[in-house]
Design a protein that fits this description.
Length: about 270
C-alpha cells in the first residue's frame, strides 16, 4: 500500500485531483493523506533559487476556518463513500510550505490540482505556489487538471539525462499497476543529436516494465512539433524528468513543462532527485 498526499489549499478543493486519487485506489488500495493548506510562507530563504530574492506578501483572504473545514468534511465524506483509507492533516498558518515539504519526505507520491492549487494568487498556470511545490517536493509529483481522465498511454520524455532516467524508473516502480498501458519513449532529436542516447540500455529498462512499448524520435524541438504529435495520442500521461531549466533537452525544459501544464489538460508526472 502506497502513502499518497493530496495537497490542497483550504479555499479550493480540486475535484479532478481527488477523482484521480480515487481511481488509483481502485487499482491498488492506498493511504490517502488530505493535506489542507490555509496559506503559504514565502520566505526568500526557503527557496532563493526559485524566488530570486522576491518577497511575497501572504494574505489570509478567502481562507476562513469555516471554508477549510467544509472542504475537509467533504474530503472525509467522499473517502468513506469510495472506500479509501484516509487521514487529514490541517496545516497551521504561516508554516504551510515547510510542512508540505516535510510531508513529501515521508510520502510515496504528491498529487496536486494543477488548476486549483492557490488559483486565487494569479492567472498564470502554473502559478508561483505550484512551482514552489514542484521544486521542493521530496517525492514524485502528479499534476492533475480539473477536467482530466485516467491515462491509456504513458509518454516517457527522454533526453538521455540522469533526471529523465530517474523519472522513468520512479514512475515504473511507483505505479506498476499501469504497466499494462501503452508506453511511448519519446526523444526530441535535433541537428546535433539525432541518435537516442544509450538506446539499448533505456530500452532494456522500459521493456521490463511495459508489455506494450514503442520508441519514437520526434524531429524538431519546437513545442509545436510535440503538440501535433501528442494530439494523435489517446488519453496520454506525460512523465517528465525534472521541472528545471538545466536537466532536460530543448523540448523538455521548464518552458515546455509550463506549456504542457497550461495548455494540454493532461496528467503530468514529475520526478527529480
Amino acid at each position: 500500500m502506497k502513502k499518497v498526499l493530496l495537497a490542497m489549499d483550504g479555499a479550493h478543493f480540486s475535484a479532478g485531483a481527488f477523482e484521480f486519487a480515487s481511481q488509483l485506489n481502485e487499482i491498488a488500495p492506498l493511504l490517502l493523506i488530505g493535506t489542507f493548506l490555509p496559506k503559504m510562507d514565502f520566505s526568500p530563504s526557503w527557496n532563493e533559487a526559485l524566488l530570486s530574492g522576491s518577497v511575497f506578501e501572504p494574505t489570509l483572504e478567502g481562507y476562513s476556518d469555516e471554508l477549510v473545514n467544509e472542504n475537509i468534511a467533504f474530503f472525509e465524506k467522499e473517502c468513506v463513500r469510495k472506500h479509501i483509507e484516509y487521514r487529514v492533516h490541517k496545516v497551521a498558518y504561516y508554516s504551510s510550505i515547510q510542512d508540505l515539504r516535510k510531508e513529501t519526505r515521508f510520502a510515496d507520491l504528491l498529487i496536486l490540482g494543477s488548476e486549483k492549487f492557490y488559483e486565487n494568487r494569479g492567472t498564470e498556470t502554473p502559478n508561483e505556489y505550484l512551482k514552489m511545490a514542484l521544486h521542493s517536493a521530496e517525492c514524485p509529483v502528479l499534476l492533475i487538471p480539473e477536467h482530466s481522465y485516467f491515462p491509456e498511454n504513458i509518454v516517457l520524455a527522454y533526453d538521455g539525462s540522469e533526471q529523465a532516467t530517474f523519472a522513468i524508473k520512479s514512475f515504473c516502480n511507483l505505479m506498476p499497476e499501469l504497466s499494462r498501458k501503452n508506453a511511448i519513449l519519446v526523444y526530441a532529436a535535433n541537428k546535433e543529436n539525432t541518435e537516442i542516447p544509450d538506446m539499448q540500455l533505456v530500452e532494456e529498462l522500459v521493456a521490463r516494465h511495459f508489455a506494450n512499448f514503442t520508441i519514437h524520435t520526434l524531429k524538431g524541438t519546437s513545442p509545436k512539433h510535440f503538440d501535433t504529435w501528442m494530439a494523435g495520442i489517446e488519453k496520454p500521461m506525460l512523465v517528465c524528468g525534472s521541472y528545471s531549466r538545466t536537466t532536460l533537452s530543448e523540448l523538455f525544459k521548464k518552458s515546455f513543462a509550463t506549456e504542457v501544464i497550461t495548455g494540454h489538460g493532461m496528467p503530468v508526472f514529475v520526478a527529480h532527485e
